[in-house]
């Protein structure tokens, strides 16, 4: 039996978060070798009114956690977003990977038609079926933050390439 | 009956390419109003060894075309990638939207287990099942180039936001 909602979410999050962890390791090596203040990169942005690298990583982890939880029908755990250092970000990614890794594919069965409510109780509340929530909302958001994290690193001279972004597939 | 392989591809490409078209319209208005050479933006990059905006749009359109074709089991049409201007890019996006819009959802049924060969006949040849091809290869690539196009625009001061990136969902 196939589990399309699982296959399109948890293994993809694992792939990309694992790749992001490797990207950040290369970035840390780079700033260490060049005697660069790590915060210059961790707080680096593509535009003044865009989030810095640390926040991009936090949001990517948050979407992996939130999408997986909502599709599986479990409460979304709240994490504090207190990360500051490369070590903190690695710990966050490891925590996210452990969290999503605990889901069984069968927990996602039937989530295609599950009603997911975005921003409940707010004027921007929006109801989506599970498929639209995953394909048209969740994945575009998740990939946005993964790619933007990569772009911040590339823009600031870290020697990485598309292969690093893609990870193992 | 649901068509997960179709739902996770064609409608997502439509959503994101339509949003990209709107992003580029805003960008063109911006450079026109500010008397900026449009090529400064069209050839803008996040790093010297990354592709410029024009190429990011071409590759995004290319993945939408290629992924849809391969999953549906039809030959991938070859397009010339000769775009230079904003009008060219709008025409390319319109062409891609018309092309993928012609697929029927049922053409994607069974593509989960279809073998897709990447870079056939080269040392980097890689065979993937349809699900891995879509979820773990195609979508990460497609979103990479859509997000990077967005990031180039944001980095160069175009007044757009996440809502514009997301489009209608």
Automatic annotation (TrEMBL), chains A, B:
- Pfam families in alphabetical order: DUF1993
Gene3D superfamilies recorded: dinb family like domain (1.20.120.450)
Q: Which InterPro entries match?
A: DinB/YfiT-like, DUF1993
| Lineage: superkingdom | Bacteria
Tell me what this protein is called: DUF1993 domain-containing protein
Can you name the source organism?
Answer: Pararobbsia alpina
Upper lineage is: Bacteria, Pseudomonadati, Pseudomonadota, Betaproteobacteria, Burkholderiales
């Amino acid at each position: 039996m196939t589990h399309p909602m699982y296959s399109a979410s948890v293994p993809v999050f694992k792939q990309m978060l694992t790749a992001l962890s490797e990207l950040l390791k290369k970035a840390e090596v780079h700033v260490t070798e060049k005697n660069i203040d790590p915060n210059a990169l961790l707080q680096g942005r593509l535009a003044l009114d865009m989030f810095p690298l640390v926040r991009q990583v936090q949001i990517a982890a948050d979407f992996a956690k939130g999408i997986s939880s909502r599709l599986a029908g479990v409460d979304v755990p709240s994490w504090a977003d207190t990360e500051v250092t490369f070590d903190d970000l690695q710990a966050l990614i490891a925590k996210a990977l452990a969290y999503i890794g605990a889901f069984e594919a069968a927990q996602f069965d039937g989530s295609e038609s599950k009603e997911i409510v975005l921003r409940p109780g707010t004027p921007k509340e929006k109801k989506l079926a599970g498929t639209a929530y995953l394909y048209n909302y969740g994945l575009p958001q998740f990939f946005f933050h993964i790619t933007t994290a990569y772009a911040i690193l590339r823009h600031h001279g870290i020697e990485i390439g598309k292969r690093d972004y893609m990870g193992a597939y």
